[in-house]
Amino acid sequence: MTIDIDQDMHEYHYDQIKQVLADEPYASFLGMKLTKLGPGEAEAELTPSGHMLNSHGAVHGAIIFSLADYAFAAASNSYGKVAVGVSNGIQFISAGKRGETLVARAKEIKKNHKLAWYHIEVAAEGELIATMEAMVYRKNQYFVDQDE
Looking at the record's lineage, which domain of life comes first (predicted)? Predict the structure, then answer.
């Protein structure tokens, strides 16, 4: 029988992990909401407003990137273990439009003791807006209380 410490940490500390990730300052500043959190996966959404558009009237790429990055951060930190981004690459596929809710979904592809890889998709109204591939370094420290 194998013990999955990451799974156990996610389940045992779920409320604390979710609260920490939902309160992420930059995501909160932009109006992003963490809507789902599972072990190695997350979903976040944002409805862009006028100041988030580019000069062509489409959602600025930095906003789309930020939403994808937030879902990636939530998924990779979903075990209560500190995970920090190492690399990512984003592909913009279609323009986001003002008023349409953007939804980013991050899913873990593989992880080991030190690294983990993720695939993130951003969509609006069922249309794929962007995809991202990303990797984190998994530190040896946790951001949840382990004394419980």
Answer: Bacteria
Please report the pLDDT score of residue 1 as a whole number. Answer: 47
Please state the separation of Cα 9 from the chain's center in Å.
Answer: 18
Q: Could you list the residue range(s) of the whole structural domain that residue 79 is in?
A: 5-142
Task: Report residues of the chain scoring pLDDT below 70.
Answer: 1-3, 147-148
Reading the block at residue 114, the tokens are 């030190």
How many domains does the chain divide into?
1
- pLDDT score, position 3: 60
Q: Which of 129, 10, 14 lies closest to 67, judged by CA?
A: 129
- Of 144, 146, 1, 13, residue with least CA distance to 81: 144
The helix/strand/coil state of 119 is strand
